[in-house]
């Protein structure tokens, strides 16, 4: 009898252990698959790689989920999402993308240019659709052949900055300024191409653009100090992931010199920049999610789907920074949105 009961106890223990193991595999979070939609009729599994944690990219992901929902795909119901954050490491993004491609997900989402390049590289040989967002120049990044006719497994949305409107703002706030300093990461194609665009626009407003290339996060502080030494009257940020990740170092150098930093979107303004003509990144992500939803339903193909671009931005300025620099609001921006510096900035 003892042997009989011992065998029953062992069998029950093994069954319990297996049940616990299965439960552990079904968890959610940023390190694995979220949801249990794999058995739902018409359900899809997708992977999403966000290159780094900054508010604008976080907003893109929120919008992306909303856009998918608008197209009938709801996370944890008929959509399983493997969300990964590359923590600003290209090699990590490459590994994450390759793992997703090997699992043959229905679609890969990518937030920011480096993540999109990793996703595209991993997915193209497997013919897996890639839908990107927050990619300033998809053509220079070699993700698509053109914005109107992608001609590849990738499409999505571009956050090409409204640079002329931004330069107009800088001129209005700083009527006597001559030099705009720009920190940019040399390995980010979107930053390189945006710098070239800015250099073509700036002379129309009697500005000289002084660029300073950096290669990693440790060079942002020293790069900002170099620009200050070159006599720039202000800094202007792009959506450069490396620079934005280390914006506090840039702001420290600028604040010490008593010159303003203009951001490329409202979250940077909340972080301590003076002003920006800002793209709505939540709305951008939502349009991207709609594109992904249509592809998942078979209503569209990435190679034929035009890249969504937004041509306008909303002016916003930081009243705390304005007061600190003893500047006044130009008449043209008296109705612009206002914000203050977040406590954590």
Automatic annotation (TrEMBL):
It comes from the Bacteria. InterPro entries: ABC_transpt-TYRBP-like (IPR007487), Peripla_BP_I (IPR028082). The keyword Cell inner membrane does not apply. Keywords: Signal. CDD domains: PBP1_ABC_unchar_transporter. Residues 1-26 form the signal peptide. This is ABC transporter substrate-binding protein. It comes from Caproicibacterium lactatifermentans.
């Amino acid at each position: 009898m003892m042997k009989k009961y011992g065998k029953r106890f062992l069998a029950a223990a093994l069954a319990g252990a297996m049940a616990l193991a299965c439960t552990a595999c079904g968890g959610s979070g940023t390190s694995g698959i979220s949801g249990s939609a794999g058995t739902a009729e018409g359900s899809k599994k997708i992977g999403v790689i966000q290159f780094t944690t900054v508010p604008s990219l976080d907003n893109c992901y929120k919008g992306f989920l909303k856009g998918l929902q608008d197209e009938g795909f709801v996370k944890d119901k008929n959509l399983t999402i493997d969300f990964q954050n590359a923590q600003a490491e290209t090699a990590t993004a490459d590994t994450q993308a390759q793992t997703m491609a090997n699992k043959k997900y229905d679609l890969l989402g990518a937030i920011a240019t480096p993540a999109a390049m990793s996703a595209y590289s991993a997915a193209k040989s497997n013919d897996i659709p890639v839908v990107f967002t927050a990619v300033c120049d998809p053509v220079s990044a070699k993700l698509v052949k053109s914005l109107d006719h992608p001609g590849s497994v990738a499409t999505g949305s571009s956050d090409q900055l409204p640079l002329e409107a931004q330069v107009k703002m800088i001129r209005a706030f700083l009527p006597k300024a001559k030099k705009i300093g720009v920190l940019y990461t040399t390995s980010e194609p979107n930053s390189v191409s945006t710098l070239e665009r800015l250099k073509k626009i700036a002379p129309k407003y009697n500005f000289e653009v002084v660029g300073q290339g950096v290669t990693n996060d440790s060079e942002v502080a020293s790069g900002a100090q170099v620009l200050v030494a070159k006599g720039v009257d202000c800094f202007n940020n792009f959506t450069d992931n490396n620079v934005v990740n280390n914006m506090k170092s840039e702001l420290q150098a600028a604040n010490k010199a008593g010159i303003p930093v203009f951001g490329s979107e409202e979250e940077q303004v909340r972080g301590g920049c003076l002003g920006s003509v800002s793209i709505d990144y939540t709305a951008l992500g939502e349009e991207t999610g709609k594109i992904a939803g249509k592809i998942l339903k078979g209503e569209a193909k990435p190679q034929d789907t035009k890249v969504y671009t937004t041509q306008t931005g909303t002016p916003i300025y930081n009243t705390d920074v304005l007061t600190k620099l003893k500047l006044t609001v130009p008449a043209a921006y008296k109705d612009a949105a206002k914000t203050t510096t977040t406590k954590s900035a």
